[in-house]
């Protein structure tokens, strides 16, 4: 049984939330609704109060509202559901505005957020609306995508509130603790960038921030695994945060170079059953880094680079029955390169995603919180994972391989 706070915004579909509240009650959950001022035009608070057995408020202040009610509600909620979420609500959430009770509770709460947008097709397709939604997904919100069909305005297109049954399933998934299907497994994860020194003060690295590795580790910990996490560190690198109760199962080792990563990983190899290689390892190392700072000269200089260690390759060679999941970030032909690497590296699984070309921005790959891509297995399976937060992509990858 969970406490579900439902924030309803102005949309013709607001009336459908009565069904959602009543279904949640039947499933044994406690629901409470908060309404924006526009939502009150579409659905009577009395309907939602009667079905939920709790007040359906809009205002932060009022004659029978305590000054700290928004904090109490924020703490009470196990899950915040924004359904229907209007374009205006997405904008206010993305910007962190707190100008009514639903938006203020959202800002004051640490509960996970589930968003079911509903609006006219043209509004839905506006880049600014999609940007706001992407911002929320990057902060960890889950989205129940709107459906396509005849809208109240007479247009046919995307923007209908997802069916209540679909929202219910998403709620159940969001509040159900992960199944402990990795309990008893110890997993080695390599993550982040490696660096190679040019001299005492300069180095070469890549754009990796370790976000996908952190998402894979956090989900594995949630499912009961012990995780040996070998992280290549640099400015701005993300470290995994163990879920409550799993702190002792995360063993973090920080390294800088590909050689250090290989040494740390090989040391852990005999302890683990599986390897997840998300690290963006530098393929080349500076042949002879200078111990002192190189001085500026007016002529061009050449830097001698030599191949560095293949971390995954060395682990593969030394393995005794462990399974391997590799990652591939590609700018071109993700499918062919992904499949090729699965075979060439002798892996059990490979997840391939696209990274942006130089000078362009993307929603997948380095330094963003979202990803999408293809998961290949040695058995010939191919799964397409649609754009979602890296946490959601990690959840799907573990579902497919666990
Ligand atoms: N990898 C590794 N050590 C390296 C290079 C890659 O462990 N020196 C691992 C990565 O962690 C990843 C997989 O190998 O899981 C594929 O990495 P990628 O850089 O795509 O492979 P490369 O063989 O280096 O191919 P490319 O020529 O595209 O760089």
Task: Explain what this protein looks like in three dimensions.
This protein has 14 helices and 19 strands. It has 402 residues and is an alpha/beta fold. It has an 8-stranded mixed sheet with strand order 12-11-8-13-16-17-18-19, sandwiched between helices. A 5-stranded parallel sheet has the order 2-1-3-4-5, sandwiched between helices. The chain has a two-stranded antiparallel ribbon with strand order 6-7. The chain has 2 domains: 3-175, Rossmann fold; 186-401, CoaB-like (Rossmann fold), CATH 3.40.50. It starts with a strand and ends with a helix. The model has no long low-confidence stretch (mean pLDDT 93). Residues 190, 258, 277, 279, 281, 283, 308, 310-312, 326-329, 341 line the site of cytidine-5'-triphosphate.
Rg, Cα atoms, Å? 24 Å
In whole angstroms, the N-to-C terminal distance is: 27 Å
- So how many helices? 14
> Strand count, sense and closure of the main sheet?
8 strands, mixed
Ligands in the structure? cytidine-5'-triphosphate
Bin the helical content.
25-40%
What topology emerges from the helices and strands here?
Elements: E1 3-8, H1 17-26, E2 30-35, H2 39-42, H3 45-52, H4 69-76, E3 79-85, H5 87-95, H6 101-108, E4 113-117, H7 121-125, H8 127-138, E5 142-143, E6 147-150, E7 156-160, H9 164-175, E8 186-191, E9 196-197, E10 203-204, H10 211-222, E11 226-232, E12 250-255, H11 258-268, E13 274-277, E14 284-286, E15 305-307, H12 311-318, E16 323-330, H13 334-344, E17 349-354, E18 370-377, E19 382-389, H14 390-401
Parallel strand pairs: 1-2, 1-3, 3-4, 4-5, 8-11, 8-13, 11-12, 13-16, 16-17
Antiparallel strand pairs: 6-7, 9-10, 14-15, 17-18, 18-19
Helix pairs in contact: 1-3, 1-9, 4-6, 5-8, 10-14, 11-12
This protein binds cytidine-5'-triphosphate.
């Amino acid at each position: 049984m969970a406490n579900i706070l439902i924030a309803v915004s102005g949309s013709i579909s607001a009336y459908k939330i009565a069904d959602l509240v009543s279904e949640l009650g039947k499933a044994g959950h406690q629901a409470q609704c908060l309404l924006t001022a526009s939502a009150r035009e579409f659905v009577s608070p009395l309907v939602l109060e009667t079905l939920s057995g709790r007040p359906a408020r809009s205002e932060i202040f009022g004659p029978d509202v305590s000054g700290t009610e928004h904090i109490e509600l924020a703490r009470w909620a196990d899950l915040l559901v924004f359904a229907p979420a209007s374009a205006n609500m997405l904008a206010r959430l993305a910007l962190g505005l707190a100008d009514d009770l639903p938006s203020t509770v959202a800002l004051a709460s640490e509960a996970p957020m589930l968003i079911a947008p509903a609006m006219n097709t043209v509004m839905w397709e506006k880049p600014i609306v999609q940007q706001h939604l992407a911002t929320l997904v990057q902060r960890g919100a889950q989205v129940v995508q709107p459906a396509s069909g005849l809208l109240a305005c007479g247009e046919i297109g995307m923007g209908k509130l997802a069916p209540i049954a679909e929202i219910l399933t998403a709620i159940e998934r969001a509040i159900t603790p992960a199944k402990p299907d990795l309990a008893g497994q110890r997993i080695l994860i390599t993550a982040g960038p490696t660096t190679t020194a040019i001299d005492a003060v300069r180095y070469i690295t890549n754009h990796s921030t370790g976000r996908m590795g952190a998402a894979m580790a956090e989900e594995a910990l949630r499912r009961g695994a012990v995780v040996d996490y070998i992280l290549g560190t640099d400015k701005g690198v993300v470290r995994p945060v163990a879920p409550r109760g799993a702190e002792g199962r995360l063993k973090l080792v920080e390294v800088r170079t590909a050689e250090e990563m290989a040494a740390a990983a090989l040391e852990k190899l005999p302890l683990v059953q599986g390897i997840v290689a998300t690290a963006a390892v530098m393929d080349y190392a500076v042949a002879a880094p200078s111990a002192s700072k190189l001085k500026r000269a007016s002529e061009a200089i050449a830097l001698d680079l030599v191949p560095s260690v293949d971390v995954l390759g060395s682990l593969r060679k030394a393995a005794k029955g462990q399974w391997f999941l590799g990652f591939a970030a590609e700018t071109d032909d993700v499918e062919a390169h992904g499949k090729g690497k699965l075979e060439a590296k002798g892996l059990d699984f490979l997840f391939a995603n696209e990274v942006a070309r130089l000078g362009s921005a993307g929603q997948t790959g380095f330094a963003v919180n979202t990803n999408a891509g293809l998961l290949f297995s040695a058995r010939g399976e191919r799964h397409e994972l649609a754009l979602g937060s890296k946490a959601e992509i990690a959840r799907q990858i573990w579902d497919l391989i666990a």
